[in-house]
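S1.2 Input.
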Amino acid sequence: MDQAQTSAAMLADGWNIITDEGFVGLIGPFWQKSTETGLLFCFPTDHRHHNLRGVLQGGALMTFADRVLGMTTRMLTQAARTATMQLDVQFIDAVEIGEVVQARPELLRATRNTAFLRSTLTVGDRVVGNAQGQWKLLHPRAPKPI
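S1.3 Output.
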């Protein structure tokens, strides 16, 4: 299935594309949808994402984890912006090119300035990775007095 066919199938299944003109736009698209049990994200892999072994490049999986955990932070805390402070990713199984990686992030705790999240990364019922980290909640700054 090519990228256009994949996109059409994703849209028909209720997914929304995450657009990005920056780095994520080079390796995406990533997709999201709301479910009864919370936010769900996915990353359909294709030939652009392989490493020298012919499986998903670890950096692509880390970028997916960073983006979905950061987006979830903004959505659940209402922060205007966030910044990744720490991200730990454990690679558990290889992702074959053409497989779809899913993540269902979980907010563990949020303080006034920091949020802690985690997610299991799966392909179907198979766990391929774990990601966890903390995000700085960036609040709008007050204008400086003249």
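S1.4 Remarks. The two ends are 59 Å apart (CA to CA).
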